[in-house]
From TrEMBL:
Gene coding for it: uppP
EC class of the enzyme, as a word: hydrolase
Cellular compartment(s): Cell membrane
Entry's Gene Ontology cellular component terms: plasma membrane
Family named by the database record: Belongs to the UppP family.
Primary location recorded for the protein, binned into one broad class: membrane
Transmembrane regions: 48-70, 82-100, 112-129, 141-161, 187-205, 217-238, 250-267
PANTHER family in the cross-refs: UNDECAPRENYL-DIPHOSPHATASE
Keyword Transmembrane in record: yes
Membrane topology field: Multi-pass membrane protein
Taxonomy of the source species: Bacteria, Pseudomonadati, Pseudomonadota, Alphaproteobacteria, Hyphomicrobiales
Name of this protein: Undecaprenyl-diphosphatase
EC number from the UniProt entry: 3.6.1.27
Species this protein is from: Phyllobacterium trifolii
InterPro entries (UniProt xref): UppP (IPR003824)
Role noted for this protein: Catalyzes the dephosphorylation of undecaprenyl diphosphate (UPP). Confers resistance to bacitracin.
Length: 268
């Protein structure tokens, strides 16, 4: 492995961990950064498989709470409803993701112009949502009705278009459906676990024959970097969002999307 490639893999891993839980589209950032760096991975597996680091970041931060929920499942109806709600929210993405996997990887992932446009559109939506006065009916993820969870899961499917943002789609959807900012972001964290784990397992299975030892080494580097940066974001995002909202992330999307469009046009 070349030193430059190792550095690029570590940088992309850090970028994944930082952006995965922010409403800015981690996949969009990875694909754009990889495009401009000239970083190529077989079947675009690197960009998906390093998400395992981000998954483990959530597990490490929420380990105690997850253990408590698992312990309470046999006796606490609220815990059972919460787990059922997360699984119900995960189902739409699992079904559509499996059916549209090849289109997503071979068409949408190869469209940097589309990614930039979606970053800009998502930024405008975030600015609007951040400024509109919404009256939340739900402030605790443990109280989310199953119907609400399913609707959030449907909205999450928009994130299959790179540049949209999985966390952005779920957070905006939850807010518009009656949650407050903190519980919307927290539910997005919990929903990320089965969604990202499912994407990781399915992509690994689909591309198991084309992965090389060099690919595996780069994925491990990216995974470690994603875990380190992901832990930091998960620990501090909820408090930031509760105090300041999403305007910073909206403007970041607008800047990155616009600069990306300009660069792509100039490179033609």
């Amino acid at each position: 492995m070349e030193t430059q490639t190792i550095v690029e893999a570590a940088f992309l891993g850090l970028l994944e961990g930082i952006t995965e839980f922010l409403p800015v589209s981690s996949t969009g950032h990875l694909l754009l950064a990889g495009h401009f760096l000239g970083f190529e991975s077989n079947g675009k597996t690197f960009e998906v498989l390093i998400q395992l680091g981000a998954i483990l970041a959530i597990l490490s931060v929420y380990f105690g709470r997850l253990v408590n929920i698992a312990r309470d499942l046999p006796t606490d109806p609220k815990a059972r409803r919460f787990v059922t709600g997360v699984l119900i929210a995960f189902l739409p993405a699992a079904v559509i993701g499996a059916l549209a996997h090849d289109i997503i990887k071979t068409v949408l992932f190869e469209s940097p112009m589309l990614i930039c446009v979606m970053l800009i559109i998502g930024g405008l939506i975030l600015l609007w949502v951040d400024r509109v006065e919404l009256k939340p009916r739900y402030t605790n993820v443990m109280d989310f009705p199953l119907g609400l969870c399913f609707k959030i899961g449907l909205i999450q499917c928009f994130a299959m278009i790179p540049g949209t943002s999985r966390s952005g789609a779920t957070i905006v959807g939850a807010l518009l459906l009656g949650t407050d900012k903190r519980s919307a972001a927290e539910f997005s964290f919990f929903l990320a676990m089965p969604t990202m784990a499912g994407a990781f397992a399915y992509d690994l299975f689909k591309n198991r024959h084309i992965l090389t030892l060099n690919d595996a080494s780069l994925i491990i580097i990216g995974f470690i970097a994603a875990f380190i940066s992901g832990v930091f974001v998960v620990r501090y995002l909820l408090d930031y969002v509760s105090r300041h909202g999403f305007a910073l992330f909206a403007w970041w999307r607008l800047v990155v999307g616009t600069l990306g469009l300009v660069a792509l046009i100039l490179m033609r």
